[in-house]
Amino acid sequence: MTRAIEPRFRPKGRRHPKIYAFILECGGSSKTTSATSMATEGALRQYPGTVFDLDANRSTTRILGYDDEAMKGRKNVLDLIRGTATLDEVALPARYRIDDGYDDDAFAYIPGLRVVPSSAEMSSADTIIAEDADRQDWFAEILLSYEGDEDDVFWVDFPASYGRMVYSVIRMLDEDDSVIPSVRADPKDVGFLSALFEELDRVREKNRLRRSVPGRPTVDHIILTGTPTATYTESSARKATKLAEALYGELLTPYIRYSADAKKLYDDCCPLPILLPNSVPAVDYRKLMTGIGFPHRT
Ligand SMILES: Nc1ncnc2c1ncn2[C@@H]1O[C@H](COP(=O)(O)OP(=O)(O)OP(=O)(O)O)[C@@H](O)[C@H]1O
Ligand SMILES: [Mg+2]
User: Fold this and answer.
1) Domains along the chain with CATH numbers
2) pLDDT at 2
3) How many angstroms is it from 171 CA to the middle of ligand 2?
4) How many CB atoms lie within 10 A of CB 55?
């Protein structure tokens, strides 16, 4: 089904989709949990999407249906960085396991959702870009050559670092896109947010006079996860929530409360809204999606 494109998914009339970038230089901060949950919930609500896994740890790739065995012989995001394949050649239909084995019928597919899979070799992406300056434009080329005409959304899951590869993506964002760090309610994790704001300021300053790239990545929401509940009363979680409210109150989305269930998406390789739709975080991600502009579509 084709529908008229809502202008907010093509800011300033541009050809390529709105980009949601899950970025924070803090390992285990909940970026992947939020990226996969939101992209899946969006697709279930009829907002088609493409999830880019840029992390050599391949968490997003696994959760959306492709473990190392399934990836054998397939292209991955490094082919995009090297410029040896197109987006449509690399992107795979997102899926989750319903049976043993690797035949097609061992998986159920998530309509409207694609994943650009990562590879362990993504750890060398910074070097590839450093050795060939043209490769810095890999993400720019994807945006320029984008030809989809539906309300596609780009969800991008980043590694916990700010190197050349990360820069090659975030310099292509402007204030209509969304840098959306996902942080756990832990004072240490919340402390990493100020470094993200500094990094984005640096990117903006560096590109201030350029016309060929937008260069204005901007945080418009902060997701706080693992927040206290009636039974989860960890004092560090309460402290971190207060700290985040004091520092970033106006940017905070509705909270994603703590639940031990959140870990299960890694055991079962299935995104949370499908694996455990009634779990506390899945309920909270639904509320969050409505809150940031993805109401249910019919
Ligand atoms: N709402 C939640 N309640 C409890 N635990 C959570 C919640 N959300 C995420 N977690 C846990 O936090 C940990 C880190 O999550 P995740 O892998 O999404 O982070 P990440 O930022 O992508 O990490 P990395 O930098 O390693 O890629 C996981 O063990 C996950 O289960
Ligand atoms: Mg991750």
Assistant:
1) 20-290 (3.40.50.300)
2) 58
3) 21
4) 22
pTM metric for this prediction: 0.96
Mean pLDDT of 24-30: 95
* Rounded Cα–Cα distance for residues 74 and 7 (Å): 34
| Ligand 1 cavity residues, CB under 6 Å | 27-33, 55, 57, 59, 160, 184, 225-226, 256, 258-259, 262-263, 281
First to last CA, the chain: 12
pLDDT-wise least confident of 18-27, 140-149, 216-225, 252-261 = 140-149
Q: What is the mean pLDDT of the chain?
A: 95
Per DSSP, helices labelled H in the chain are 31-44, 59-63, 68-71, 77-82, 87-90, 125-131, 138-144, 164-170, 187-191, 193-206, 235-248, 264-268, 272-275, 280-291
Convert the pLDDT of each residue in 90-113 to its tens digit.
999 999 999 999 999 999 999 999
The span from the CA of 67 to the CA of 21, in Å, is 23
* Ligand 1 centroid, distance to 264 Cα (angstroms): 10
- Which is more confident, 253 or 211? 253
What is the chain's percent helix, strand, coil content, to nearest 5?
45, 15, 40
What does the DSSP 8-state code read for residue 254?
S
The residue to which tokens 């300033």 are assigned: 12
Q: Which two tokens stand for residue 266?
A: 């890694």
Contact 295, 48 (CB under 8 A): no
- Output phi, psi for 265, to 5 deg: -65, -25
Per the structure block, which two tokens stand in for 76? 């991955």
What's the CA gap between 96 and 187, in Å, rounded? 34
**30: CA distance to ligand 1 center in Å?**
4
- Token digits of residue 108: 């159920």
Q: Read off the pLDDT of residues 160-191 as tens digits, 9 standing for 90 and up.
A: 999 999 999 999 999 999 999 999 999 999 99
